[in-house]
Amino acid sequence: MAPIADLMEADLFELIVAVQDWHPPEHVSFASNHPGRRAFEKIELYGHEQILWPDRCVQGTAGANLHFGIPSAKAAAIIRKATNAAIYSYSAFRDNWDPKGIRTTTGLTGYLKDRGAEDIFICGPARDFCVRYTAEDVLQEGFRVNVTWDLCRSIEPQRADILSRELSGRGVQIMNARELRHRGKIQ
């Protein structure tokens, strides 16, 4: 978290948004809410694969707070996702599919467009899930997207090279924190 905090404190960005998982205790993605199932098993949910996760980031608990090492006062907004117990959300921009096949937005697209954002820089945990789906949605929303690779961590690190090629092939700029610092202030 320290390198992310350092970038936030460096005033390189005009706008910083933090994203926070905020699961109700009965969330559909928790293995504990599926009797006989274990964390990391896969099920079908509304016609799509869903990984069952350990209980985490439960609303109102210390585990749902932003990491204490992040200067949250630097964030102009905090977007909470996965707040609906029946729908998971990897992306910061849209929930996963609901029973009707619809992906509801989180409001982040409008927030960023209203503020004139064009380039989006993403970092954080779950490179192969939350970061990936967020990056893909950023592209669909018409922004340029950059993933600060060395400030992300994967659930399945052995697939990092494959994921990097896939994202690059879709138009995602892969960079590291050093490159980002050399760019200077980002509008």
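That was protein one. Protein two is written in the same sequence-then-structure order:
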Amino acid sequence: MEKTLLHICCAPCSVMCIETLRTEGIEPHGYWYNPNIHPVTEYRARRDTLIQYAKDINMELSLRDDYGLREFVRAIYPDLENRCGVCYEMRLFEAARFAKENGFTSFLTTLLISPYQNHGLLKATAERAAAEFGIDFLYRDFRPFFREGQKKARELGLYMQKYCGCVFSEEERYIRKKK
């Protein structure tokens, strides 16, 4: 039987990914690992929202619940301009490792729903992780469902963040606002 691990960056991004997979007859098992999310209050808000949402929709969820500020900063420094690629690698390689070690046959990520992420780099990174761990990467382009997912998340009252998670993306959000 097909067992699919879905790396989840946040509950709002997961809504349409899970719904779409279930429509295909795939029951995903959620996985939380996001050392990029800062500050710790933001990390906890996103994690706790996902935990409750998983319960609400009856989805199994595993957590690697270690707030990863130091690990994340060490990994991206000093090349801050290429932090997204490092961040994808940290999360997708961990998801592939967890999937392989826990008997899943495939994995994918909710990051594939965001039009703000580098989709090509995400896909290439996930494919490398899949090859390294000998597990299938279940590719889906969820971007056409992004707006619908955000709308449903608001209707459900899910906590909605305003940046991808890392402190540098939050900084960029404020700099753009000033301009």
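Strands lie at 4-7, 28-32, 61-63, 106-109, 136-137. Keep this in mind for the problem set.
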